[in-house]
Amino acid sequence: MRYIFLLLILGASIGAFVMFVVPRYNNLKTLRSSVSSFDGRLETADKLKLSREELIARYNSIPKADLDNIRTLLPDSVDNIRLIIQLDSLATKNGMSSLRNVQYDEVKTAEVAKPDPNAPVSQKPYGEFAISFDTTGQYKNFLSFISDLEQNLRIVDITSVQFATAEGSDRGVADSLRYTIKLKTYWLKK
Predict the structure, then answer these.
(1) 50: domain range?
(2) Local confidence band at 168 (pLDDT 50, 70, 90 cut-offs)
(3) For the whole model, what pTM was predicted?
(4) At 158, phi and psi to the nearest 5?
(5) Which of 53, 43, 137, 33 is nearest to 91 (CA)?
(6) Strand partners, 83
C-alpha cells in the first residue's frame, strides 16, 4: 500500500508538473523571445533617434538663404501663381509684353509613367506641372528672356516654342513677334 501511495504522489506530481509548470515555462520562453525582439527594436529606435538628431543638426546648419534657394529650385508644392508671376516678371524685365493666354495643367504621373496599360505604375517622388503662355517682343529680347529663364533657380524644361508675327503689336515695334511657349516645371511631393 505504501508503494501505491508513493506512486500516486509521484503521478500527481508529474501531472501537476505537466499541467501547471510546462505551460508557464513555454509562456516564459515566448515572453523572453518577445523581450529580446523588443530590445532589438529599441536599439534600432535609438539608432534612428541619433540619426534623426544628426540630420536635424545638419539641416539647422544650412544657411537660410541656401534653404530658400533649394525651395525655389524644387518647391514642395506646385505654387502656380508664384511661377506665373515669376515668368511675367522675367518677360517684362527683358522687354517682352506681359504674359497672355496662360494655361496650365498638372501632368499626371501615372499617364507619363504608364503608356502600356499592363505595365506597373512607377511612383515618382516629384510632380510635373505644364504651363503655356503667349508673349510678344523683339527676337533679341526673346533670347534674353530665354537666357534668364535658363539661369533662373526654378527648374523648367521648355517643351515647345512657336513664333508668329504679332498682330497690332502693343509695343508699337514693327518687328515684334508673338511667342507661344510651353514649358514644364517640377515640384517635390511630400
Answers:
(1) 1-61
(2) low
(3) 0.58
(4) -80, 120
(5) 137
(6) none
